[in-house]
Amino acid sequence: MTIEIRGPLELPARREDITLETVDDLTLVGELALPESGSPVATLVTLHPLPTAGGFMDSHILRKAAARLPALADLAVLRFNTRGTSSPRGTSEGAFDGGSAEQFDVAAAMDFVRERGLPRPWLVGWSFGTELALKYGREHDVEGIILLSPPLHRATPDEVAAWGRSSRDVVILVPEFDDYLRPAEAAERFASIPHARLIAVEGAKHLWVGENQTRRVLTEIVAAVNPAALPLPTHWPAE
User: Fold this and answer.
1) Predicted confidence band of residue 152 (pLDDT cuts 50, 70, 90)
2) pTM of the model
3) I want to staple 108 with a disulfide (CB 3.0 to 4.6 A). Which of 22, 91, 123, 225 is the partner?
C-alpha cells in the first residue's frame, strides 16, 4: 500500500533536536534530519522567513523539506530558530536584530555542519532568510545558495554583486505574483551575478501555498543539490 506525499506527512528519517552556540554566547534551538540509513549526499542549511512576521524553523516549505528530502533525496536538512525566535521546538536566546547580529546565527549553523562533518552544505533561504544568505553566505564553505522569494530589502547591491565574483552556485526562485520582488525586477537586480539561475515560477506567490508549489520548490532545490534523485516520488513507499 502506498500513500500520497503531501501536506504534513513526515517520511522516515533520523531526527535529532540540536542546539547551536553563537560567538556572542547565545544558544539557538534547531533540528537535524538525516537519511534513515546511510550518509547524506549533501546538506541543506535552512534560513527561515522574517520572525517578526511569523517566520520560524517550522515555516512550511522548510518543515516539508526536512520531512521529505532525507528520504526522497538523501539530503541532510538543518533547521533552526534565529535569535529570539520561537517554535514548538523552543525559543532561541537573544532578540531579533534585523539581520545584523543574525550573521552570528548563520556562523553557528555552519560551525555545527563542520563539526558534524556534514557534506556539501548549501544555504537555503526563504524571504528574510535570503537576505542572510546573500549578506553572509560568502564567508562560509558552501557550495551555493538557494533563494526562495528574495525581497532584497536588506542585502545591498554590492553584497549581491559580490556573488558575481564567486564561482559558487546561486539559484533564485521568484514567484510570478510575489509581494515584494517579481521576476522582471528580480532579473534586473540580480543581473550583477551573471551565472545565477533565476527561475520565474508561474502562478506562485511569496508564501508558496499549496501542494503544487511545495513540490515545485522542493524539486528545484533537489535539481540544484542532488539532481540524480529526480523526479521526486509523489507516493511512499516510492513506486
Assistant:
1) very high
2) 0.98
3) 22
